[in-house]
Amino acid sequence: MQNKYKKRIRIISGIFRGRVLHSIKNFNIRPTGNRVKETLFNWLNPYIKNKNCLDCFAGSGNLSIESISRLAHSVTALEINKKLFYALLNTIKNFSINSVLTFNTDTITWLKKNGKPFDIIYLDPPFHDFKLLKNTIILLKKIIGYIKNLLFILNNVKNL
């Protein structure tokens, strides 16, 4: 039987340290690499505890679950692809996590309907979709405006 998983993504630190997430084979996703993720979360570590996070393009759930592992209060994870969404739900179930809310929706539609405040927002769209990223940032600016101490985490935005 052929292995249905392509990439091994590990949780770097926290309560789920060393546990492995799997991204489903044949999907054009590029989860944040372990080195980049480790640097990011080492930087976020003093701030993330008890924070509410939004993962706008959740994919494998890599950033969402790392956040919970490092004691974020909650994560809202948005994923438009049904198979990735169900894989994320399965991972959350396997890790026995109850503080991640998942939505099978596109980010723009969800943001237009939900104005909940977040402390940390992850923006890591699929494969350099800069138009989607730009539209998401514009919408977030309209919805959120200025919030003191809000952190935006953007990945691969060299062409913005």
TrEMBL record:
Provide the reaction this enzyme catalyses: guanosine(966) in 16S rRNA + S-adenosyl-L-methionine = N(2)-methylguanosine(966) in 16S rRNA + S-adenosyl-L-homocysteine + H(+)
EC number(s) reported in the record:
2.1.1.171
The top EC class is transferase
Report whether S-adenosyl-L-methionine shows up as a keyword of the record: yes
- One matching Pfam family: Cons_hypoth95
Name the SUPFAM superfamilies on file: S-adenosyl-L-methionine-dependent methyltransferases
Q: InterPro entries from the xrefs?
A: DNA_methylase_N6_adenine_CS, RNA_MeTrfase_RsmD, SAM-dependent_MTases_sf
Single GO MF descriptor: 16S rRNA (guanine(966)-N(2))-methyltransferase activity
Q: Which domain of life is it from?
A: Bacteria
Keyword annotations from UniProtKB, A to Z: Methyltransferase, rRNA processing, S-adenosyl-L-methionine, Transferase
Entry's PROSITE patterns? N6_MTASE (PS00092)
Q: What role does it play? A: Specifically methylates the guanine in position 966 of 16S rRNA in the assembled 30S particle.
Q: What family does this belong to?
A: Belongs to the methyltransferase superfamily. RsmD family.
Record-given protein name: Ribosomal RNA small subunit methyltransferase D
Q: Native species of this protein?
A: Buchnera aphidicola (Cinara tujafilina)
